[in-house]
Amino acid sequence: MLRAWRHADKLDPRTDGIRSWLTHVLRNLAIDGHRSRQSRPAETNDAELPDDLSAGAAGAADTADTRNLVREALADLSPHHREILVHVKFLDHSVFETSQLLGIPPGTVKSRTHLALKALRAALSERGHTP
Known about the structure:
By secondary structure, the chain is mostly helical. The protein is 70% helix and 0% strand. α3 packs across α6 (106-126) and α4 (79-90) packs across α6 (106-126). It starts with a helix and ends in a 5-residue tail after the last helix.
């Protein structure tokens, strides 16, 4: 019905084609919905999860350690490098979006990102983390 409303200017109420057009649109939507559900991977349930809960706890501890390591390494970076990494890597902004938000040219965003990642790798390496 929404498609009919959006394309009301193209439909002629005097013809018998409206009903067949709506039926055709509904059929195509149903087929598209079915195909999209078929293309997704199968969902899992809790029965397929491992029973060993200690593995999950160890993974959570590793994640917390990694998070703290990255925070410490980010603290070593200059404010410009930290700001660029937050926009480009953590907020997932594009180069163009970052340049608009920070008011700097896109080329500067690219070079600062490269240098910031290099400095972050060095800071992580100083802490004993090797990528």
